[in-house]
Write a sequence for this structure.
């Protein structure tokens, strides 16, 4: 299986002034992210405003970004849904396009049982040859994928890992301790990356890497190479920026930051709005303390 990379950026979806997807800018952003530390790109995740994209936009984004990236990095398609049939169909479409893997979010709103979650992910995985990454983010989905269910799902050949954004390090530790070495755990929260690495995690699906990708890459590499002190120093340095990028709902802050530094990604789509002035001022003040890796 192709290595997907330790540093994956959950890429924002650029919109133009009319609120339409700006596919050209999406391709430019994907390449800029690869040039500033990212190993791969997650397209149409939470940060990509997946709830407001229609399937035709999603599939075209997968295609456009993959065509731009080629073999320079990996492209992971966010194909999950709270509708199993829809997730299955979108995953099949993404596979036909030629993406490298898919990300499957825990179904939101309808509050399935753990058995329902198991059957949901099993059905999608069995419909595709793509590597599948589970995505647990209970702050958004309400329902949390338990460690036991994750461990059970890890026995399905093409379910190869999980993006863990529960913030529950005990759960993360249990997953890592009870799955094979080929089952990978990516942090789903930038602030949890180093703690999860210390537990045996693999990497991060990051928002902050839009701005400081090389620095996050250096932190991961330092830890892997036994330079824990250097990794800790970078982690502490980045935490204020990470906190600023979540001062209001993601991706409002990171879109504001990208626009502010000169990489135009447009406004979020309703029901998300632009950053209010108080939040914007805080983000601007925080950015002054950081070197921005993204080429603008």
């Amino acid at each position: 299986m192709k290595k997907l990379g330790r540093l994956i950026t959950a890429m924002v979806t650029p919109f133009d002034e009319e609120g339409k997807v700006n596919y050209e800018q999406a391709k430019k952003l994907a390449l800029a992210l690869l040039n500033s530390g990212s190993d791969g790109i997650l397209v149409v995740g939470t940060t990509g405003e997946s709830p407001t994209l229609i399937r035709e936009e999603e599939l075209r984004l997968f295609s456009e970004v993959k065509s731009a990236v080629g073999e320079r990095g990996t492209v992971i398609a966010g194909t999950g849904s709270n509708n199993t049939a829809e997730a299955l169909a979108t995953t099949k479409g993404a596979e036909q396009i030629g993406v490298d893997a898919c990300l499957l979010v825990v179904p939101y709103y309808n509050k399935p049982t753990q058995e329902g979650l198991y059957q949901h992910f099993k059905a999608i995985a069995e419909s595709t040859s793509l590597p599948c990454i589970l995505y647990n983010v209970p702050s958004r989905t309400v329902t949390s994928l338990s460690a036991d269910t994750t461990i059970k799902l890890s026995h399905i050949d093409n379910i190869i890992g999980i993006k863990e954004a529960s913030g529950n390090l005990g759960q993360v530790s249990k997953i890592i301790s009870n799955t094979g070495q080929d089952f990978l755990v990516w942090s789903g929260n930038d602030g949890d990356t180093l703690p999860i690495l210390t537990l045996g995690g693999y990497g991060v699906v990051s928002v902050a890497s839009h701005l400081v990708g090389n620095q996050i890459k250096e932190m991961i590499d330092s830890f892997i190479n036994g330079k824990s002190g250097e990794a800790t120093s970078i982690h502490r340095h980045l935490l204020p920026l990470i906190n600023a990028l979540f001062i209001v709902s993601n991706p409002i802050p990171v879109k504001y930051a990208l626009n502010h530094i000169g990489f135009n990604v447009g406004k979020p789509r309703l029901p998300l709005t632009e950053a209010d002035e108080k939040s914007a001022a805080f983000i601007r003040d925080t950015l002054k303390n950081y070197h921005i890796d993204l080429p603008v």
About this structure: The mean pLDDT is 97. The chain is about 45% helix and 10% strand. The longest helix spans residues 228-244. Residues 7-225 form a domain with the TIM Barrel fold (CATH 3.20.20.70).
